[in-house]
Design brief:
α2 runs antiparallel to α3, α3 runs antiparallel to α4 and α6 packs antiparallel against α7. A hairpin with a 2-residue loop joins β1 and β2. This protein folds into two domains: 84 residues, no CATH class; 104 residues. The protein has 204 residues and is mainly alpha-helical. Strands 1-2 form a two-stranded antiparallel sheet. The chain contains eight helices and two strands, in the order αββααααααα. Helices cover 76% and strands 5% of the residues.
Length: 204
C-alpha cells in the first residue's frame, strides 16, 4: 500500500504529460494543461499533497520519502521557473546517487546497514548478509542513476518519460525479487497454522 501511495505523483505526472497541450479556463484564470512543464507542476503539487497527507497520518516520513519529496520540490521548481527540462532530467540520477551515499555511509555511522534498518523488522538475517545486500543496493542505485542520466540525455522525451515512470519501477521490482532467494529462509512467518495442526493432533 505504501509503495502505491508513493507512486501516485508519478502516475499523475505521466497522465498530464500524455495529454494534448491545451488552455483550460478555471473561473477568471487560464491554465495550460498537457506537456512536460504542466506535468512538472502537477508532480510538484501532487507530491506535496501526498507526502503532506502521509506526514499528517503517520506523524513522520522516512528519510527516503523526505529525499524524494525534496528532489521533486527542488528540480520541479527549477524546471517550471526556468522552463528548462534539463533540471528535471537530473532529478532521478541525483536522488539515486544520494540513496547510494546513504547506504554507503550507513556502514560507518550506524550499527546497522541501511537495508537492515528498512527490512530488519520482518527478516532476521545474519549481519554478514545484510552488509552484502547493502553493497548490492549501493551498486544498484549508482547504476540506476547512470541509466537514468543516459536515457534522459540521449533518447527521446517520450522514451525518457516512460522509463522514468515505468522503467525504474520495473527494474527495482526485478532487483528486489532477485534477492528473495537469499532472504526467504529468514522471513518471519506466523506459526498459527502449525499451532492449529498441533492442537488438532493432540486432541486426536
Amino acid at each position: 500500500m505504501k509503495q502505491f501511495i508513493d507512486y501516485i505523483p508519478l502516475l499523475a505526472f505521466f497522465s498530464v504529460w500524455a495529454m494534448d497541450e491545451r488552455i483550460v479556463s478555471v473561473g477568471e484564470f487560464e491554465i495550460s494543461i498537457g506537456g512536460i512543464f504542466s506535468a512538472a507542476e502537477v508532480l510538484l503539487i501532487i507530491s506535496i499533497v501526498v507526502y503532506g497527507a502521509l506526514f499528517l497520518v503517520q506523524k513522520r516520513l522516512d528519510k527516503f520519502q523526505w529525499i524524494t519529496l525534496g528532489g521533486v520540490v527542488v528540480f520541479c521548481s527549477l524546471t517550471v521557473a526556468f522552463q528548462s527540462v534539463t533540471f528535471l532530467k537530473w532529478k532521478a540520477p541525483i536522488v539515486n546517487w544520494i540513496f547510494a551515499t546513504i547506504f554507503f555511509a550507513s556502514r560507518f555511522i550506524s550499527e546497522k546497514p541501511a537495508i537492515e534498518h528498512m527490512m530488519g523488522h520482518t527478516i532476521d538475517a545474519p549481519r554478514t548478509l545484510w552488509y552484502r545486500l547493502n553493497n548490492y543496493w549501493i551498486f544498484y542505485f549508482i547504476i540506476l542513476g547512470i541509466i537514468n542520466l543516459v536515457i534522459a540525455f540521449t533518447l527521446s522525451e517520450a522514451t525518457w518519460i516512460q522509463f522514468k515512470v515505468f522503467g525504474n519501477l520495473a527494474l527495482t521490482l526485478v532487483f528486489v525479487f532477485a534477492q528473495m532467494p537469499l532472504l526467504v529462509k529468514y522471513i518471519d512467518v506466523e506459526e498459527e497454522g502449525n499451532s492449529s495442526d498441533s492442537g488438532s493432533e493432540e486432541s486426536a
